[in-house]
Amino acid sequence: MEAEAHEFKSSTEKQRSHSTDEQTIDIQDITPYEKQLDFLGAEANYLQPQITIDTESEHEMEAFDLFDPNSEEIRKVRWKVDRRLVPLLSLLYLCSFLDRSNIGNAKVANLGEDLKLHSGVYNVALSVFFVGYIIGEVPASMALKKVGPRIWVSIVMICWGTVSVCMAAVRSGTGLIVARFFLGLTES
């Protein structure tokens, strides 16, 4: 047993070096930890490796020198993106907000009488929107990362528009609840 421990100690005390394309790792003099632990008669020596890792590369540092975050070109690109996307996204957000809050206007305009809703159906229709919204949040975020925002936002806008148009075909309380659920699902 002592011979095995001595062999292990002598083999670990040698200096070793490992080189890869990206970084160099030098492992120097791994020595036994001075402190021995005595717990219920069992002794243990712990080794503490000393590792030096050189990850700084000249090429990586040169790349940072080329990028100037305050350059005129970046300011122009940012302005161009803002000028094209912000109005469109603001319009879509306005339509989404109007669609969510428009059910209150529909109730004032006799939605309950037209669909022959009894007492709790309107409240369920209001609440089920948020159930669909909560259920759709995580899958929508995962799909956004998988397919990218350009494709995912287009899919969601088409689905949302389709569900909004289908709201016009609602003729009963059950249809209103189903349509509101899918509206929440597509808006998540």
TrEMBL record:
GO cellular component: membrane
Keywords assigned by UniProt, alphabetized: Membrane, Transmembrane, Transmembrane helix, Transport
Positions of the Major facilitator superfamily (MFS) profile domain: 85-188
Segments passing through the bilayer: 123-144, 151-170
GO molecular function: transmembrane transporter activity
Biased composition regions of type Basic and acidic residues, renumbered to the chain: 1-21
Location in the cell: Membrane
Protein name in UniProt: Major facilitator superfamily (MFS) profile domain-containing protein
Organism annotation: Entomortierella chlamydospora
